[in-house]
Model the fold of this input.
Amino acid sequence: MTELEAFRAEKDEFFASHPQSPLTREQKAGFHGLNYFPENEQLRIEAQVEEFSVKDGFDMQTSTGGVQHYERYGRISFSVEGETVELTIFRSEHGYFLPFVDSLAGRETYPAGRYLEPEVLPGGRFLVDFNLAYNPYCAYNEMWSCPITPVENRVRVPIQAGEKLFHG
Done:
């Protein structure tokens, strides 16, 4: 079992049995694991961040009508299937946050987007592993409040890595 497979198995166990799982009791009864894309090494990216000189505050709307405060930290650029993709990394008191929506949204991936917490590397770089992309809890249960991906992080390419659309 690879490290990613072990991570996914642990997550499935959490969703199936943990009291803090986002799944309802009814969803847990029929739960047989989350849907994932196969591991894609090409979407495990070490990217140089273009740090914004002015880190302006940004109130990200949530699925329940509230806001969560972030700052725009910087932008990363990389290639997917020959297309250049640019995404903004946000920062809060909880760390770095990278929400995104890809061209598969609504068909294969959650329509409101998926999330990542990029890993800081030396030299102004980040590890962005899309194999770890996950759905927000509101994808499973509307009682959760989740940040809605800003327009600037909606891309026109498929990101075929990470978690797929939940069919509960």
